[in-house]
Design brief:
Blueprint: H1 4-20, H2 39-48, E1 56-60, H3 66-73, E2 78-83, H4 86-98, E3 105-109, E4 122-125, H5 129-142, E5 148-152, E6 163-168, E7 179-186, E8 193-199, E9 205-212, E10 215-221, E11 226-228, E12 230-235, E13 238-243, E14 251-258, E15 261-266, E16 271-279
Parallel strand pairs: 1-2, 1-4, 2-3, 4-5
Antiparallel strand pairs: 5-7, 6-7, 8-9, 8-16, 9-10, 10-11, 10-12, 12-13, 13-14, 14-15, 15-16
The protein binds S-adenosylmethionine.
Length: 280
């Protein structure tokens, strides 16, 4: 019960802060409180992100280290935890040592806004909506296309999740049953702007992509015919869009983005290739 009381207080603080956003005097820095993710949800988050031995999992605001430890112990990944609270970082290191995963885990005491995310392949979050919103531009700027972000309970601003799962939040049979959402996103390649497309045995044309996270709109034109793109979507670096209508370049395009080029198959057959001309 002595261990439950601070958790209950923090849980209430998180619930209240989640409802009204972060508070504090003007200019005062208020950090999200420590509230642990139930162990069962930790497992579901890591399973949803398909964490494996090739991954580097980074938990922003790692608390007692449970996500980092589970990523190493149950999923074979390397993992890094970052927390502003030194005593939590010390506790997490002790727990990792006791779990036998000190060699594959690392904990640092630091503000996560100052943490470089470029090497992370999976990012885990249990933070307030406002903190998630502030982290979003950093995540999109630093994480590589195809890397995964998984969040417990609160979404990431207006970025639509690629998958979401409702999970049972009760720690054991005696706890009050409750459900929570867990969200998964694939960081999309940034492709907004103009591209020049060539394809086997067909006319060349220009694509002008308008990108909103993983969703793509825009136009395709060869100067004579112009079509509005249909069902454009990215999953990391994988791209798919349809040029509808009767234009000579109409069809179902699937392929892969690689920096300033992309290539793939048209209608599952002829090859196509595109080169970036202008960034939006
Ligand atoms: C809700 S708890 C989540 C703990 C853990 N990730 C989990 O899911 O069990 C949020 C954690 O973020 C930490 N935190 C809040 N703001 C932070 C910041 N700016 N930089 C680093 N850690 C922060 C808090 O100390 C707290 O441990």
């Amino acid at each position: 019960m002595r261990r439950l009381a601070p958790i209950l207080v923090a849980l209430l603080a998180l619930a209240a802060a989640g409802a009204r956003g972060q508070t504090g005097a003007p200019g005062e820095v208020v950090y999200d409180p420590f509230v642990p993710t139930p162990h069962r949800i930790v497992e579901q988050m890591l399973a949803l992100a398909e964490v494996g031995p090739g991954d580097l999992v980074v938990d922003l605001g790692s608390g007692d280290g449970r996500i980092v430890i589970a990523a190493a112990q149950q999923f074979g990944a390397r993992a890094l935890g970052v927390d502003i609270d030194r005593s939590l970082v010390a506790e997490a290191r002790e727990r990792a040592a006791r779990a036998g995963v000190a060699g594959r885990t690392r904990f640092v005491a630091r503000d996560f806004f100052a943490t470089d995310l470029r090497d992370a392949t999976v990012l885990t979050l249990y933070l307030l909506p406002e903190t998630n919103r502030k982290l979003l531009p950093k995540i999109l700027a630093e994480m590589k296309p195809g890397t995964r972000v998984v969040a417990h309970r609160f979404a990431l601003g207006d970025w639509p999740p690629d998958r979401q799962l409702m999970v049972d939040a009760a720690e054991d049979w005696s706890a009050t049953a409750a459900t929570r959402w867990v969200y998964l996103w694939y960081v999309p390649a940034q492709i907004g702007g103009e591209w020049e497309v060539t394809r086997e045995g067909g006319v060349a044309f220009r694509l002008d992509f308008a990108q909103a996270y993983q969703n793509l709109g825009g136009k395709a034109t060869n100067g004579t015919a112009t079509e509005t793109l249909d069902r454009g979507v990215l999953r990391g670096s994988e791209i798919r869009f349809i040029v509808p209508g009767a234009a000579p370049f109409a069809g179902d395009y699937a392929g892969r983005v690689d920096g300033d080029t992309m290539s793939g198959d048209l209608n599952g057959g002829a090859r196509w290739r595109a080169v970036r001309r202008k960034t939006r």
